[in-house]
Each structure stands twice: as structure tokens, then as C-alpha cells.
């Protein structure tokens, strides 16, 4: 079969649906991942982002829809029909998870060699012949070690190749997990929140690594991320989900200014979204972000004004009204005691006259 053009999508998701009983996690989702691009899936918590990943990588079998992956050699696979291990082995899809899943007791070098066990087993004919030291197995073992060291250099961990992976800093473990996925030679790399928990320096290192993967290996990257700085800096394309439905799709700068996206993240009510879109369409509005902020600020001020008591809401004009109850007894002096004191004051002159 003829090879695929770089303009063709490597992954095409058509009418994807995923239901768990009566809960609709993904509803009629359509998206494309272009070959050689970094595509980000973003959205509020519970939008269905990881569910999409689980459908792509075979952890879930979709309720409906098609997931078509087209390899560079022209082979096409319907991922919803493949078991998860064939999605990795034949369709060349690799992924990482939100939680780090390294082998903490193994070294970084050994973690990367584990990812290449298929190549090593194939060289031995999937038998124990590798234990006999056959030339083919030796060559495959040397190639696997060389590839592992290449990726350790790429993620700046070659100096700690023989340390336990569990002793590495958190950011280094994140990069090691991505390197392990790359040791399987994927054509599509799926990363589930790779920047979660990283400090700014570690995020910058992650950005460089992902850009190098795209530019140097041609691997297409599909990532889920909440760090908008990472998304806007490295993504070629952004897809936004809300409650399992796609609400925006396009280049980062277009998606960032989409009123629907702003409303989804700021929690604006559905009926207010239409008002925002209508106002954005008017020529007088320059920036929909400013519009949304002004709109929400106006509502907040109105709510605060309603919650304030009338005396405070009156401002300086209400102060003279507070001077009227001056003749009333104070809280520390009961009314009955005040009347007895005044009665004694009246009796004093008559006693003096005697």
C-alpha cells in the first residue's frame, strides 16, 4: 500500500460515544489528529478527556463510533476492534497515565529496556534461544541498550542511568515515563496530563522534550493537559470538551478567545453564552475575554449590593438618622433603674428645705 501524506490525519475519530449505564461520558465526538502535530484535548474536570484516551488505547470499548488510525506505511486500523496490546504492537500507539507507572526498583536504563521486550523476544524467535547467546539476540540486545541510552541522553538522565528510578525527582520520573513510551517506536504518542505537578523549570524541560519528539522523530502527539501555558506554547491544534461534547476545535489562539470556552471555564450559565456570542459578533467588541470579565464583574457587584443591609447601602446620608434615639436608655442601664434615679433627684430639694 502507498504511504500516507503528511497532510492526512493519523487518527480520525468519528461519532464516538461512550456510555456507562445511563451516564453518557462521550457524546457523538468527532476530531482529527494531524500527522506530525501536537494536538491538545482540554476541558473542565469530568469533561471526558481521559475516557477518550481509554477508547483510543483499548482500555474501553466504545459504545459507538469509529477510531481509524493510519500508519505511515499505509496500513489502517480500526482501533475499536483491536485488543489493547495490538493497538500498541501493530497500530503503534503508546500512552502515559496521570499517575506515574514506572518500576521504581529498576534503574532508568532497565525501565527503558523493559519497553523493548517485544523486539528482544522477536529476535529469539519468542523462545528461550536468547539465553544461548545467539548472534541475532546479541545484536537486538545491543540495539535496545543503545536506544535506551539515546533517550536517557535526551531527557538528561544518562548520569543517573544506574540509580533506582524511584529515587529520581518527580519531574525526572515524568520525562522517563515519556522516554519509555518512545522506546516502543510509536507513531501516535498519547500523554495524559504530563505537566501535572511540575514546577515552571520542569514544565519548560517538558515543553522542549515534546517539541523535540515532534520535530526530530515525526511522532504525532495527543495530550490532555490543564496547564494552559503548556497547551498554548506547544500545541498546533486544540480540542475543547465539556460534558463529553466538543464545544471548540481549532488553533490555540482561536480557541483561547472562543466565548464558549471562556464560559465553560468560568462557569457562565448556558443562556448567558448566547448573549456573550451575540455581543462578540458586534464590531465594537475587541476582546471577548474582556467582555466576559466585565460581564461577570457586573453580576458580582449587583449580588454584593443585594446582600448588604439597607443601613450600609445608604452610605453617608444615613448617618443623621442614627442620632435620633439619643434619649433612649443605653444598653448598660435598664429602663426601670433610670426612672428610680430620676425620682430620687426630685426628692433631694425637699429634704434640704427641712
TrEMBL record:
Coiled coil region boundaries: none
Gene3D superfamilies in the record: P-loop containing nucleotide triphosphate hydrolases
GO molecular function, one term: L-isoleucine transmembrane transporter activity
Database matches in Pfam families: ABC_tran, BCA_ABC_TP_C
Keyword annotations of the record: Amino-acid transport, ATP-binding, Nucleotide-binding, Transport
Domain of life: Bacteria
Region (Disordered): 303-354
GO biological process: D-alanine transmembrane transport; L-alanine transport; L-isoleucine import across plasma membrane; L-valine import across plasma membrane
ABC transporter domain mapped to chain residues: 11-268
Compositional bias per record (Low complexity), positions renumbered to this chain: 308-318
Cellular-component GO terms for this entry: plasma membrane
ATP-binding in keyword set: yes
Family: Belongs to the ABC transporter superfamily.
PANTHER family attached to this UniProt entry: CONSERVED COMPONENT OF ABC TRANSPORTER FOR NATURAL AMINO ACIDS-RELATED (PTHR45772), HIGH-AFFINITY BRANCHED-CHAIN AMINO ACID TRANSPORT ATP-BINDING PROTEIN LIVG (PTHR45772:SF11)
Name assigned to this protein: ABC transporter ATP-binding protein
Lineage of producing organism: Bacteria, Pseudomonadati, Pseudomonadota, Alphaproteobacteria, Hyphomicrobiales
